[in-house]
Amino acid sequence: MSSWRDNLRYIEPYVPGEQPDLPDMVKLNTNENPYPPSPKVAQVIKDFDSGTLRLYPDPGSKVLADAIAKRYKIASNEVFTGVGSDDVLAIAFMTFFNSKKPILFPDITYSFYDVWAKLFCIPYKRPELDEAFKIKAEDYYCDNGGIVIANPNAPTGIRQDKSFLRDIIEHNRDVVVIIDEAYVDFCRESALPLAREYDNVLVVQTFSKSRSLAGMRIGYAMGNPELIKAMDDVRFSFNSYPMTRLSVAVGAAAMEDEEYFRETTRKVIDTREWTKRELNKLGFSFCDSETNFIFASHESVDAKYIFEKLKEKHIFVRYFNSPRIDNSLRISIGTQEDMKYFISELGKIV
User: Fold this and answer.
1) Element (H or E) spanning 44, and its range?
2) Strand-strand pairing, 26-27 and 315-316
3) DSSP 256-321
4) Is residue 9's pLDDT more than 80?
């Protein structure tokens, strides 16, 4: 007699960074923003009418989509909103990657991509980054079912410029090219102009990093209206009300506070550059990160050893026990005070 277990789908899940809850910890392992959300967010929460929670939210999250569209000077029907960029990306995978050809994404990148591919039964290939952890454009000149590029990449922090991305897009006009820009606000330029220029390009961003709203789960995609409608049709096929009334109100408030956004991202960038200099002094090498983290390895001390010693001090960084990157640590950027303490304690280890 057949067991019900025979019909289970077994997937090795994505493993997020550790989420400790210690009063004295310095948490530098999940790329969260060290600063609170905009004061306008706090005001929205304070004034929020909880009585409205008895009502379903707007299926299209129009208030939020309008705020995003206004900020980027695009039309609202060029914006898709979702429950964090993970939700947005998962729906994009389901919507656009349905051929029998493999989709392409680098071997070292956001580790959720292959999980979604397996979950949705999408064939995939992972071209290797070169020795400097950079994408080789020619690896993406082949026949494929779609392309996903995190830019800047994670966990390396490396950004490819628009001309590089344009070259890949030009070689792949018959498939959807997704540019995952979770960390774009900490670098010099976005690929959004390419999404306006090419009808097969989707740019995905998030409120979790630069807008300090990881706890609210707000993400969005921008692309031509046909791409957005296709994603909406898939999304509404299994969840008609994805975003809460509160998350929509909070997201719109955060998107509208440009001054606070620029102030906090500048703080993170300044602290990142200071941390790079201090890590160099301690014998670390790293890619030239344009994100809110640094991916670093020491010239003589093993990464796992450093990771464990820091953890004993309640300082949490990210260690990946994976080929090619198992001697590197991903270090999120905290406040200036956080990073000064981190560097001081790190110096005692190395």
Assistant:
1) helix 39-47
2) parallel
3) H-HHHHHHHHHHHHHHHHHHHHHHHHTTEEE----SSEEEEEESSS-HHHHHHHHHHTTEE-EE--
4) yes
Global pTM reads: 0.96
CB burial string 309-332: b at 16+ within 10 A, e below? bbbebebbbbbbeeeebeebbbbb
Q: How far apart are the first and last CA of the chain?
A: 59
The confidence score (pLDDT) of residue 177 equals 98
Cα separation, 168 vs 138, whole angstroms: 8
Instruction: Say how far apart CA 182 and CA 291 lie, in whole Å.
Output: 9
For 332, residues 6+ apart whose C-beta sits below 8 A from its C-beta are 27, 28, 29, 30, 31, 32, 292, 293, 317, 318
Bin 84: left if φ > 0, else alpha if -120 < ψ < 50, else beta.
Answer: left
Q: Kindly provide the b/e burial profile for residues 205-222, where b requires at least 16 CB atoms within 10 angstroms of the residue's own CB.
A: bbbbbbbbbbebbbbbbb
**DSSP H/E element including 219:** strand 219-222
Cα(110)–Cα(258) distance, rounded to whole angstroms? 28
Give dist(CA 220, CA 2) in Å, integer: 43
Residue 206 three-state SS: strand
Q: What size, in residues, is the chain?
A: 350
What's the Cα-to-Cα distance from 175 to each of 84, 231, 342, rounded to whole Å?
24, 15, 44
Contact call for residues 98 and 241 (beta carbons, < 8 A) = no
For the stretch 276-319, pLDDT in tens is 999 999 999 999 999 999 999 999 999 999 999 999 999 999 99
